Amino acid sequence: MLHIWWSVFLLPALMVLAGLLGRFLPRRRGLYPRPLPPERQRFADALLLKQLLRLGPALAVLAYMIMQSLRLTPEHTQRVIAYIVSFSEVFTLISIINPIEQALQERFGDAPAERIVTETASAKVNLLLAVSAPRTDGFHELISVMQTVGLCDQLALRATEGGIELTCDRDDLLADDSNLCNKAAVKFFTHTGITGAGVSIELKKVIPMQAGLGGGSSDAAAVLRGLRRLYAPDLSDAELENMAAELGSDVPFCVRGGTTLARGRGEVLETLPALPACWFVIVKPAFACCTAEMYGLIDKYRCYDDGEALSAAMIRALEQGDLPGVCAALDNTFERTLPQDNVVYAIRRRLLELGALGALLCGSGSAVFGVFDREEEARVAAAALRGTYPETFCVPAE
Q1: What is the pLDDT of residue 289?
Q2: Is 124 an active-site residue?
Q3: Where are the domains of the chain?
C-alpha cells in the first residue's frame, strides 16, 4: 500500500523535520513568509516551528488511519483518495498562518505598525588625501585619513512590498536609477537574496553636492544601514562594507565613520585614534568640481604623492591627541592641481586669518574646511565668511 500512500506521509515528515531543524539552520531572513520587524519575526518563527511539530505528527496519524480503513478497496480508488488527502494536507498547512496572525495581533497589537527607520548621513573631510600614480587597472592608489563631521543629510526608509522608490527635496538631484541611494538598495536586496520586499526612501539634502564632502556616498551608506535595520539585523558590518565597496570608493568609510585610515581605492579601512575635540568651518564656493576631471588633472600634471610618508606624521599626531600636529600634517594632492588664483586659496587664507589651526580642500573639491579648537571662534569665522559664501557651515567633528 505504501507505493500508493507514500506521498500522503511526505508532507507530515517534512513538517516534523522543519520543526526540529528550523531553529538551528542559519538564515538571512525569518522562516515566517511575511517580512516583519525583527521582534515580530522571531515570535512568528517560533510559533511556526511549534505548529509544524504539532501538526506534522497529527496529519501522519490521520493519514495512517485513512490508509488502514481503505486497505481492502481497489488500488485506483485508494490512489484518488490519497491525492485528495495530500491536497487537504497542503491546505491544512496553509491554514496555520491564521492562528499565527492572531497571536501576533494579541501580542503586538491589531496590525503591524508601518515600518520606518531614519538614518543620518554625515559628511566627511579628508585630513589627508595622497594620490599615487595609476595602477595597472587604471585606478589610483589612495592613502587617506578620513573624518566624519556634523554636517548631515537625513533619510527616512519605509518598508514596502516591492520596488525601490526615491524622493528628494532637491530638484537638481536626480532621483532615478543613477542615484547612489537607488544603487545601494538594489545592491542590498541582490546581496541578501531578500525577495517580495522593497523600500521607499525620502532624502533631505543638506550636504552640498560636488563639494568633496562625500554626500552621495554617505547617503548610500545610510541606505545600507537603514535596510539592515528593516530586513537583516544580523548582517555584519563587514558584509555591509563589502557591499559598500562595490558602490564607490568612499562608501565603505561612510558605513563605518569616525577617524579612519583608508587605502587602496578607499575600501581597505583601519580605525585610527579619534580626532581631538574640535570644530570645522566648511565653505562651499559657487563653483563645483568633477572628481573624474580632478583625477585627470593629477595625471596631467603628474603631481603624485607618497601616502605612506605623509600619513606617518598624521597618525602620530592622532595617537598623541595633538590637534595642532594633526593640522600641521593636513595635505591633499588635489589641491595642487588648482591654479594659484583659484578661490579655494583665498578661502584657505581667510580661514587661517580667522583663527583656523589648519585649512585644506575637501576631497576633490570644491569645498574648503578650516579646523578650530574652540566653538566660539569657529562660529565667529563662519559668520564672517557666510556673507560672501552662503554655503558656509560650522559643525563639530564626530
Answers
A1: 92
A2: yes
A3: 2-108, 116-266, 279-396
Domain 279-396 sits in CATH at 3.30.70.890
Candidates 45, 124, 205, 219; catalytic one: 124
pLDDT of residue 82: 83
Residue type, position 239, single letter: E
Separation CA 112–CA 248 (nearest Å): 36
Distances (CA, A) of 75 to 6, 69, 78, 80: 14, 13, 5, 9
Convert the pLDDT of each residue in 114-123 to its tens digit.
689 999 999 9
* 250 catalytic residue (yes or no): yes
CA distance 251 to 219: 9
Mean pLDDT of the chain: 90
Indicate the CATH number for domain 116-266: 3.30.230.10
Q: Tell me the pTM.
A: 0.73
- CA distance to 174, 236, 256, 363, 374, per residue, from 284 (Å): 21, 35, 25, 12, 21
Q: Which residues are 124's β-sheet partners? A: 148
Identify whether the C-beta of residue 185 lies closer than 8 Å to the C-beta of residue 220. Answer: no
DSSP summary character for residue 397:
B
Rounded CA separation 90/150 (Å): 55
Q: Taking 70 as the threshold, does the pLDDT of residue 198 lie above it?
A: yes
Q: What's the pLDDT score for residue 103?
A: 80
Q: Read off the pLDDT of each residue in 94-116 and give the average, rounded to a whole number.
A: 73
pLDDT in tens, 139-165: 889 999 999 999 999 999 999 988 999
Task: Please check the confidence at residue 38 and state whether its pLDDT lies above 70.
Answer: no
Contacts of 237 (CB under 8 A, 6+ apart): 255, 256
The phi and psi torsions of 360 (rounded to 5 degrees) equal -160, 155
45, 250, 305, 331: the catalytic one is 250
Distances (CA, A) of 15 to 41, 59, 89: 19, 10, 11
Q: SS3 helix, strand, coil % of the chain, rounded to 5?
A: 45, 20, 30
For residue 194 the three cell numbers come to 531578500
